[in-house]
Amino acid sequence: MKKSLALLLAAAMALALLAGCGNQNPGPDSSDGNNDKQGGSVIAKVGLVTDVGTIDDESFNQSCWEGVEEFCKARGYAYTYYQPTENSNDARVASISQAVADGANVIVLPGYLFGAVLITVQDMFPDTYFLAVDVGSGDLTLDYQTFSDPSANSVCIAFCEEQAGYLAGYAAVKDGYTSLGYLGGMAAPAVIRYGYGFVQGCDAAAREMGIDIDINYTYAGSFVADASITAKMEGWYANGTQIVFAAGGTIYSSACEAAVQHNGMVIGVDVDQHYVGEDTSKYPYNPFVTSAMKGLKASVVSTLEDLENGNWAAHSAKCESKSLSDGDYIGLPTADSSWCFKTFTVAEYETILAGIKDGSIAISNDTTVQPAVTNSTVNYID
Asked: Which class in CATH covers the domain with range 161-294+330-381?
């Protein structure tokens, strides 16, 4: 399969050179901009290739794009994004080859689906720097039997989503929710870590409070909202689920649509999604209580800064996993406008945050075994 990807890539490059910019989507005031940093920087142009979502998905694609945009605008670098024509490795390879043909020598790849593609493109384009965000070591495989490593021109940046999920679950139960749900996108490692962390946080809070809780748990099999996902969520809310943690692309909108039909609530993911619920044309009230966040934008910016400043060696050929012990890469939003808990306080949150940072609160990141629970009934639903 690796050989076929390589052949496909070569063909895609030739087509890209002949066909021009068929799938190019220039950033505002950017794609034709001059590189004002040519004096010493290795960066010529930055490209981003989206996962199955878009740069306005209000989740990880958008957050990574905002990081690219912030970095490049501040420094005068040219930048642009590419949206594959379909959800396939072939289409992702074609977009990457187009970016290289257009002069991008730094390419940001958000999402675990780029793991298989990175194995090939990092060697085919040795002079291009690849930032694979939300891609872990377990994603660098073609068959889930053998696994590869990032090359010297690549870095994989993953996160300890179990910590963010734990915080969201703990806070929700402490705030009085006893019937909860987890709606994951696809059963990818990051999504599983979010979910299993959520279960652990819910159960820890219930154990402290001496109460029993129920958790519905499922994967949608997609990162895109649709009527079938909405219908499943309507069933949950109608049967007593009070709040759902929706983790994966735009599926939060299915949870929100269902929630507002039954006075339910939602926990957002990746970024602070509170502002999404402010759209009164869609929602009669804001259903977001909080969001389990990870530092996608911050990681993109800091890695690009290191590349610009000659510190690529800090990332080269590494699989990084950002956690609370590394900095503020994980958390819940604490701004007054986004803190919508009724009784759970910021002070309580900061105590739990500190416990995770110093290791006194242990959270499993094992994605192969369902978390052990003591005060929770978890209904794993296909």
From this structure: alpha beta
